[in-house]
Design brief:
By secondary structure, this protein is α+β, with helices and mostly antiparallel strands. The protein folds into two domains: 3-165, no CATH class; 167-215, no CATH class. It has helices at residues 3-17, 53-69, 94-98, 152-163, 168-184, 188-200, 205-211, and strands spanning 23-30, 38-43, 74-87, 107-116, 121-131, 137-140. α2 runs parallel beside α4 (152-163).
Length: 215
């Protein structure tokens, strides 16, 4: 897969429809040379502007992990993604850092990113979206890139893809440790909000308790 193909599809879809569904592409190669490669196209109807970037990262990481787990014996050779995104260069507070759409200085862009197993190479490009006063897309700006690093969303997707190649025990242990450290840094108020959310989502509180043991 060539990233230029993703750029062309994302640009044309936005100009035609005024929005794009986030899409991910995976190419997987079997350990058995007698088996054909697998190409996967994933429509990522998972996000909303109400979600923070870290929440979206967790969602997309799981999607990448689950998809690769559906193909045991296959290893990723390519991963690509395009999606709409909001950016802001001067966030006024932490909330705007986590949800750039809340900033008055936000900019709408299309992120197009890819990873190649050969050379462990990543590519990241941005396409500015230009709308009129009625919010209709009238043009797509000049391609920006390649950038020095990928977005948090794509990095999370790649993490999920790569984690699928590791033993589950290793992955889950690392994730539990990360979650426990983040919970430990929460204020009492935020921790109570988390507990209320866990309860509202039907998640066993014992799971949260297990991550806060030793406090």
């Amino acid at each position: 897969m060539n990233i230029q193909h993703l750029i062309n599809v994302a640009r044309q879809t936005m100009l035609t429809n005024g929005n794009i569904m986030p899409m991910a592409h995976l190419e997987l190669k079997s350990d058995d040379p007698g088996k054909e490669d697998v190409n996967v196209i994933m429509a990522l109807d998972l996000f909303s502007d109400a979600q923070s970037t870290p929440v979206q990262g967790g969602i997309i990481a799981r999607a990448g992990w689950e998809e690769c787990k559906n193909h045991p014996g296959y290893k990723p050779t390519f991963a690509g993604m395009y999606s709409e995104a909001w950016m802001t260069k001067d966030p006024e507070n932490d909330e705007q850092k986590l949800r750039p759409k809340l900033s008055d200085k936000r900019q709408e862009v299309i992120m197009v990113e890819a990873w190649h197993s050969e050379g462990n190479k990543c590519e990241s490009y941005r396409l500015p979206v230009i709308r009129d006063h009625k919010k209709r897309v009238i043009d797509i700006g000049t391609l920006e890139g390649p950038k020095n690093k990928v977005s948090m969303i794509f990095a999370s997707f790649l993490q999920g893809v790569h984690d699928a190649q590791k033993p589950d025990e290793e992955v889950f242990s690392r994730m539990e440790g990360m979650i426990a450290r983040r919970i430990a840094n929460l204020s009492p108020e935020r921790r109570q909000e988390l507990r209320s959310f866990v309860k509202s989502e039907g998640i066993p509180e014992e799971l949260l308790d297990s991550l806060t043991k030793g406090e």
